[in-house]
Design a protein that fits this description.
The protein is of the alpha+beta class. It has one domain: Deoxyribonuclease I, Chain A, CATH 3.60.10. The chain is about 25% helix and about 25% strand. α3 packs parallel to α4. The longest helix has 22 residues. Its EC number is 3.1.11.2.
Length: about 260
């Protein structure tokens, strides 16, 4: 069972590339971030034409997350990260698919830092840890995927110096991510690539793609019950090089049925 994550950077703008990827790689579950669409404008019908059923937690022009499942309806189990009733940003959705709880998130970027955007990021990560702790207690197979907007370690970025002042690499961001791992979550990509040097994002600016100046911010976290079933994980890097591509590449993990 392949569960994939893709920050699509606008589902309408990237729809041809997204459909290509789905048909060519055929993940059982595809989680999208930054769809930048409300539910009423989300292209459910286009996905249904190729056999995918979708749920979406949308927002006009910003954020937005969706879960697509191949041949089955994802059973929604929650939308919106608990812990702050005033937070209206569409960044979090959960569903059950084939007996696995799938959590899809688009974590706040936090720039510029310091400032209110960074404070929101760290508070969001604290709320996320609380929710994920509840899921760990369920002792069910859980896979948490998405754009975490955190570069976990120096080995996960092309240049530590270039990103030193970015919110993605601040000690508070890294510490909050590390606490998730210490709670019992397995970082699939890092576990299988302990040497680092695996990128999931390349900026549109300064020839970053052509120079391979990237970093890893799209992550796949597995509960112990899911990690025991992991067989492979990777990055579909080539899709970043296609015409009118997202600035992220899809990432994926495979677990035994």
């Amino acid at each position: 069972m392949r569960i994939a994550s893709f920050n699509i950077n606008g589902v309408k703008a990237r729809l041809p590339r997204l459909l290509e990827w789905l048909e060519e790689t055929r993940p059982a579950v595809a989680c999208l971030q930054e769809v930048k669409s409300q539910e009423e404008g989300f292209p459910f019908e286009e996905f249904e034409k190729i056999g995918y059923h979708a749920i979406c937690h949308g927002q006009k022009g910003f954020n937005g997350v969706a879960i697509l499942a191949d041949g089955v309806e994802p059973v929604e189990s929650g939308r919106g990260l608990p812990g702050d009733p005033e937070d209206e940003q569409a960044r979090f959705i959960e569903a059950e698919v084939h007996g696995v709880r799938v959590v899809n998130l688009y974590l706040p970027n936090g720039n510029p830092q310091p400032g209110p955007k960074f404070d929101y990021k760290i508070a969001w990560m604290e709320r996320l840890r609380t929710r994920l702790a509840e899921l760990l207690e369920s002792e069910a197979p859980v896979v948490v995927v998405g754009d975490f907007n955190v570069i976990p370690e120096d080995k996960d970025v092309f240049s530590v110096r270039a990103m030193a002042n970015d919110a993605l690499m601040q000690p508070a961001s890294r510490d909050a991510y590390a606490r998730l791992l210490h709670d019992g979550w397995t970082d699939a990509i890092d576990t299988l690539n302990p040497q680092g040097g695996v990128w999931t994002f390349w900026d549109y600016q300064a020839g970053a793609w052509q120079r391979d100046h990237g970093f890893r911010i799209d992550h796949l976290l597995l509960s112990p019950q899911a990690a025991d079933r992991m067989t492979a994980a990777g990055v579909d890097k080539a899709y970043r090089g296609r015409e009118k591509a997202s600035d992220h590449a899809p990432v994926w993990v495979e677990i035994r049925d």
